[in-house]
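Hi L., both proteins are below.
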Amino acid sequence: MSDPRTIVKRAALGVLYFLIALYFGDTLSVRLRMIHPKPDEPFESVTAPRVLAIPLKDGKTEYELDAQAPAETLVCVHSLFPHDGRTPCWYLKPRITRPVPMLVPPPLSFPRRLS
């Protein structure tokens, strides 16, 4: 019977080797698709309106279209992992439509001057 520590080490190494092979396979897939690109493969431009979430004093939130940058365009990659500094599309697409939270800093309080 094998030692439980040996079994755990072998299992951890197996998982590590699998993840490394998966990453390099994903990289190879992206590189091959870069050689023969099609529209939206392997990179895709995603455009969405930029909405600001502005907190109000009563605890509610007001949503407003950003006047300075009304649309946001980001480039994502069709893969499991990030490549070339691009976020995977499966991760970016659900998050691009989220409102941008606007933080309102608390008012500054200065120390009182003693006379």
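That was the first. Here is the second:
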Amino acid sequence: MPKKILIIEDEQALAKNLALLLRDDYTVETVENGELGLAKAKAWQPDLILLDINLPDMDGVEIMQHLRHAQATETIPVVVLTNLSDTDSVSRMLKAGGIEYLVKADHSLEEVAARVQQLLA
């Protein structure tokens, strides 16, 4: 059974293209906001979550705190995928429980997919 990846990202083109790259090897679901992401993570139990920080309904730190405080999702690895590269944002997300922080502008979708494969190997 393929591993499951949840992408919580409001940029639909990015989410769709990243999902297309990953679908050959994984089962991938995408959602466009934090509320849907939290519900999907709890119900679906993905093996990895790719999480944007800037979402329309809540920020990534808030989502991460919810994930880490719920028994169903507390151990799911979360990779932060965002355009925010300031040290404060990086620090806040890693302290909240992110295992890796990737800045969208610094990584191609292929590089993100390759990193996901490394993490799930």
